[in-house]
Amino acid sequence: MSKTAKKRLSNCAVVYGLDIFGDRWTMLVLRDMILHGKRRYGEFLESEEGIATNILADRLKRLAAEGLVTVSRDPDNRRSNIYTLTEEGLSLMPVLFEIMNWSANYCELNERRTLLVKRIREDREGLMAEIRAREAALRNAA
Amino acid sequence: MSKTAKKRLSNCAVVYGLDIFGDRWTMLVLRDMILHGKRRYGEFLESEEGIATNILADRLKRLAAEGLVTVSRDPDNRRSNIYTLTEEGLSLMPVLFEIMNWSANYCELNERRTLLVKRIREDREGLMAEIRAREAALRNAA
Fold this sequence. Notes:
2 copies of one chain form a homodimer.
Chain A: H1 13-21, H2 24-36, H3 41-45, H4 53-65, E1 69-74, E2 77-85, H5 87-90, H6 93-104, H7 111-122, H8 124-141
Antiparallel strand pairs in A: 1-2
Helix pairs in contact in A: 6-7
């Protein structure tokens, strides 16, 4: 975690969290990593929201500076990076899940998303264990 | 909920939620209402983050348009408004709590905030029931 002299508005825990991950594009990159296991620049660009390349580069840099992801060379393409969630990044799962849980009460979701929210509501621990296992396997393969 | 033709980036539940409450100042107004029971314009202005009057007015208007708060005349001051959380607004408690829970692992909090996070971790249901009871009492008094 970069604890460098960033001036926060207050010492409130809500302010602290929002300063680090509260930006909309940052949250979508975290969503792509947590829910979809994305790890490469090109994979993030493919998401349907159409993140701009400069915004993506900036958000990945910030996530690394804050210690939510680590950056390493892609063994399959030495000119590319691989982004991996740290424990600090992974532990944002409950924040993401509660946002989805709330939204699902008020918006229509397709079948895949409806099933995911059902899993969040009925088997959150199992889902988190599955995501953690996937991440551990990716780290060990690196 | 205002379901007017607002164009979203995608039909993802994360996008949906962030569009409605993901703005930093919006979240701080919601925090003031949920955690501190604030209901009046002047009370929001007193928060230590120093929200600007124009931003506050805009965010309260948006929260009302989205159905997260209702607006009524202040019986003690007919020229002022009272803002009250709807069920949709109140049900953001878990999102707020998970943000605080995450942050508390990585930042130092004062004693009051530490106790609140402890309550979130150990007695979340009790805390939510207390907040709901306070809101119900305020609504009945209106």
